[in-house]
Amino acid sequence: MRSRLKTEFNELWVRTAANVRAYMFCACGSWTDADDMVQDCYLRALRGWGQFDGRASRQAWLFGIARMTRADWYRKKMRKSAAVSVANLDDMDSGLREGEDVNKINMVWDAIKELGAEQSEVVHLRFAAGLGYAEIARVLGVPIGTVRSRLHRGLKAIREKVKDKENEA
To answer: Which fold has domain 2-168?
Structure first.
C-alpha cells in the first residue's frame, strides 16, 4: 500500500509540479516564494491523500490545495506588511526567448495585475497552471460557464489595456 501511495504521489508530482510552480509564481512574483508555496502545497496534498474522494481529477484536487496555499500565503504576507508584493518581472526576463518583446510582456503582466481577483485567478489557472475549463470549474467550485465568461472578460480586458498602453507609447 505504501509503495502504491509513493508511486501515485510521484506521478502526480511529475505531471503537475511545473504548472503548480508557475501558478504560485503568478501570486507572488518570486521564484523563491513560489518554491516555498509549492513545497507547502505538496506537503498538504500528501497529508490529505486519504481524503481524496474522487469527485474530481487528482490534478483538480491538487490545484484546490494550491489555491488554498496561495490564499494562506497572501494572508501571511498581508500581516507582515501592508503592501502585497507584485510580480518581479526581472526574474522572468532571463527566461525570455530571443526576439520576444519584453515591453509587451511587461504590459501583459501589468494588465493581469489590474484584473479583479476572480478574473486574474482564472487567467492564472488557465495559462500558468495549464488547467482546462472543467478542471478550473472544479478548483473554484463554479459552473464551467462562469469560468468561460471570467476568462473571456479577463482576456478582453488584458487586450484592451495592452492596446491602450501601446497607443500611449
So the answer is: Arc Repressor Mutant, subunit A (1.10.10)
